[in-house]
Amino acid sequence: MKPDTKLDSKTPDGPLVDKWDRHRFNLKLVNPANKKKFEIIVVGTGLAGASAAATLAELGYHVKNFCIQDSPRRAHSIAAQGGINAAKNYANDGDSAWRLFYDTIKGGDFRAREANVYRLAQLSCNIIDHCVAQGIPFARDYGGFLDNRSFGGAQVSRTFYAKGQTGQQLLLGAYSALMRQVSTGMVKLFPRREMMDLVIVDGKARGIVVRNLITGEIETYDAHAVVLATGGYGNVFNLSTNAMASNVTASFRAYKRGAYFANPCFTQIHPTCIPVHGTFQSKLTLMSESLRNDGRVWVPKKPGDKRLPADIPESERDYYLENKYPSFGNLVPRDVASRNAKEQCDMGKGVGETGLAVYLDFADAIKRNGKSVIAGKYGNLFEMYEKISGDNPYKTPMMIYPAVHYTMGGLWVDYNLMSTIQGLFVLGEANFSDHGANRLGASALMQGLADGYFVIPYTIGGYLAQTSFSKVNVQDSMEFKQGIDDVQKRIEKLLSINGKRTVSEFHRELGLILWDYCGMSRNEEGLLKALSMVKKLRHEFWENVYVPGTGNDLNQSLENAGRVADFLEFGELMINDALARKESCGCHFNTAFQTEENEAKRDDENFCHVAAWEYTGDDQMPTFHKESLSFENVELSQRSYK
Amino acid sequence: MISKSINLTLKVWRQSRGEKKGHLETYYAKDISVDMSFLEMIDVVNEDLTKIHKEPIAFDHDCREGICGMCGAVVNGRAHGHEKETTLCQLHMRHFSDGATIVIEPWRSRAFPLIKDLVVDRSALDKIIQAGGFISVNAGGAPDANALPIPREVAETAFNAAACIGCGACVAACPNASAMLFVSAKISQLALLPQGRPEGAKRVQAMVRQMDECGFGNCSNETECEVECPKGISILNIARLNREFLKAEFS
What we know:
The complex is a heterodimer.
Chain A: H1 19-26, H2 32-35, E1 39-43, H3 47-59, E2 62-66, E3 84-85, H4 97-107, H5 114-133, E4 148-149, E5 159-160, H6 166-184, E6 187-190, E7 193-201, E8 204-212, E9 218-222, E10 225-228, H7 249-256, E11 261-262, E12 267-273, E13 296-300, E14 317-318, H8 320-324, H9 334-346, E15 358-361, H10 363-369, H11 371-389, E16 398-407, E17 410-411, E18 424-426, H12 444-465, H13 478-496, E19 501-502, H14 503-517, H15 524-544, E20 545-546, H16 556-580, H17 604-607, E21 609-614, E22 623-628
Parallel strand pairs in A: 1-2, 1-10, 2-6, 10-18, 19-20
Antiparallel strand pairs in A: 3-5, 4-5, 7-8, 8-9, 11-17, 11-21, 12-16, 13-14, 13-15, 15-16, 21-22
Chain B: E1 5-14, E2 23-33, H1 38-51, E3 74-75, E4 78-79, E5 101-105, E6 114-116, E7 119-120, H2 123-132, H3 152-162, H4 169-173, H5 180-192, H6 200-213, H7 224-228, H8 236-250
Parallel strand pairs in B: 1-5
Antiparallel strand pairs in B: 1-2, 3-4, 3-5, 6-7
């Protein structure tokens, strides 16, 4: 294969620890007086988007910031519970930027870029400093200093938290920084807008087409660069822990305009969620995985055992994680815990009404430590569980089941976070960059904020300073008119099909196909089957969907229809990526590639790379591009948790 | 989870965009599993409406786990329904009895103009934050996070105020449509923490002024806001806001 000129990661030379410093020095600066001449579009107001918009405005750029909700404060970063990692080493327990880097690379099963991950680890400390200065009320110890906890199996305490609402507090911090810039006039805010397309002029990203979700009007906006911070695509599975409006449309439109999509098959499935209760369930709720510190996971030994948990004696219970993984027990990593739960349910040993759940039992912990200690640790989680399920976890075991939670794949970006389209930058969960094939707990918040507060402000300057821009504006440039036209045609098409099935029916069906064949474990046969099923479903969608209402009104069914239409196409891309990666790594578990211990078995010789897909036309197989990963600072090892 | 279904009669506020006056429309929600959330129940009704080619009920919602603050409606006269400290998305149908009639209306306040059906415009809350709900610090210049110890109780009290999700239920519940609980939560968080002190006086004056300009009513200690707040924000914060405001006015 000829070397890919577009997939130049632009990783700086020199020792790993100095790369970011050297790079910042080498990046051209925009003269302070010139910054105000540049306009930047930021799409999304989650941790990455809000922090980027605020920081770019602080530097003097003019920012147009878009979000889908009624207020930037609603972005789904707000729902993150656990915490945010930083290599502060406040606990004096041996942490360092290097250790955080190593843990993240290893946790990602060696499918991330070393230089990016090291930069993330370095910047982690700046994030905490900045967030405290913003007035974020992190948990503190009795001396008044910041408290840390160990999280997600990490051997050091490096996770900063604000009860179970860390994401909320960090997002509100970024939101207030953003509001401050709105009040100065440096940020112009466009809420209730959904990005429908990217506008490229002379090969550079110069604007976007959005739909005003209140009036239905199709609007266009121009700028010198476009920053996408539009989150992950977990809702392709229909049921996930994502918010209802989370979608792939912005990323997918950029993909169709030439941005490569990297590793779409890397989706993380979180083991401790509240199980599905029925067809009309709209979303899944995550329970912090800290619960596994004290809860014991079990199922009845006998398949189909319908007795109440209290009636099943000890000898007839299978504590399968403890039996299979004696040294890690209930604390095995997310992907291992998830796969095992599914395996038990597939054997007919699942519990609850649907048989799609396993028990997480606190009886022993309560006996050992007393109810008050357990309540002190997990009180709010127990309450949340009871609110949703109606069961009291102090009395009867919780029921849990895995759910789609986070997507490591995303638009391909170089070290500057720029995609394969000039001037299109991608931040946060929307890019693919830092988590490899599996994300560690408390790392998503860190990445979103590092990208927004501390990476993009420098790298976008480098781009703006050395690029010459032609004059572009939404009234006169043909590309914008074309963008409006395309979007309008698509909306008219959706509204005119007038078929028999609703949008949610298609979404549910797509989700089930992907969950069954492209979820926790995959194999070639299933993936091929799924591919033809998704294709068929997509064709049916465009002939048989019914979308009520009109285009020039607040029309939530139409919004969903557009998102599901993109998910249907995106689902195929995911499956193709999973098929092409003939190895197992991290969350991508192909049953044909496993160790004797049923662990993901990597093939570093042939698959130590990022798979980046280029759109080539509807119903065409996308072109595969490969960014080889080289590891100069860590040794590739096989994970083992036995 | 013991599964059971119930049947309900809904009376839902319908109002088209631009229409001056809306009306209550009656719908029947059949075979609603008691494990569903209130919004999932509306999803079912909407799915049925779609199938008979009628326009579904527009309502705001997003995270469906009680943290984003996007959802909210007045259910049988109560903001977010009758369960304590619960958002509408976390209100489950097991709290309703079979055969019940449920009246569903939007937040009502002059400061929250109605957009459509149950959807209202809450941008006034963003405007209040824009007026001063922040600490003026740029990225890059912060000292080490542990350079400034903050007593644990202070941090926790600040956290409890910061837990506000900005849903607007306090405004909807208040007979005066006052936003004092919302404003006081942000004022308290930043007044309690030492980082927020330097701008304290300016902040409280600016935010209160903006609140008045947005058309919210005044506080007359009805305490309805505290009862309906899904995050249990205390009205002690309003007392703190008043103190901060008076101090600022007299200094």
